[in-house]
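stage 2 :: seqdesign
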């Protein structure tokens, strides 16, 4: 008998993240643990000291917020354990791989720079495109001068790769 699609037994796919993306997740976890959680805990304690908790909105909201913070902290800890940090290597130069900054020129002559990132740090409006997205998959392995074509809900994207660069290690 085969496991159902999406079951807990399904094959684990590695998730990639840039060093900057991991640092952002770590900073969020640190802020929640060191700043938000202690602040909310103090607020809950102050609200509890006022007496009847059953009709105390500050107490009820504070307890709910603590549960949300704890849930997010558990998620971040688990997620960071599952992620693989990918750094550019010299062999990647000249081709599009994970972490690349890609300058595209569309058919109308407009240009935009994108960075291929993991799904945890994807933000298309800011130019960070998931490597798992249709555009990300179309770009992987391409070189400067290659053309890409991707079907989107708002129409076909046709563009040429103008340049490829990787962030230098500091």
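stage 2 :: out
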């Amino acid at each position: 008998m085969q496991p159902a699609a999406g079951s807990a037994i399904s094959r684990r796919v590695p998730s990639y993240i840039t060093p900057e993306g991991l640092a952002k997740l770590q900073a969020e976890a640190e802020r929640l643990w060191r700043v938000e959680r202690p602040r909310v805990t103090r607020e809950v304690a102050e609200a509890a000291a006022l007496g009847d908790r059953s009709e105390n909105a500050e107490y009820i909201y504070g307890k709910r917020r603590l549960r949300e913070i704890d849930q997010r902290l558990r998620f971040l800890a688990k997620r960071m354990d599952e992620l693989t940090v990918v750094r550019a290597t010299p062999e990647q130069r000249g081709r599009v791989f994970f972490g690349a900054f890609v300058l595209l020129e569309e058919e109308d002559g407009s240009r935009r720079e994108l960075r291929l990132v993991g799904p945890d740090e994807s933000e298309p409006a800011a130019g960070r495109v998931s490597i798992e997205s249709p555009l990300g998959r179309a770009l992987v392995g391409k070189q400067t001068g290659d053309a890409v074509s991707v079907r989107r809900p708002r129409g076909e994207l046709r563009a040429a790769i103008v340049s490829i660069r990787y962030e230098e290690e500091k």
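stage 3 :: structure notes
- Strands lie at 15-17, 83-85, 101-106, 111-117, 128-130, 147-152, 155-165.
- The radius of gyration is 22 Å.
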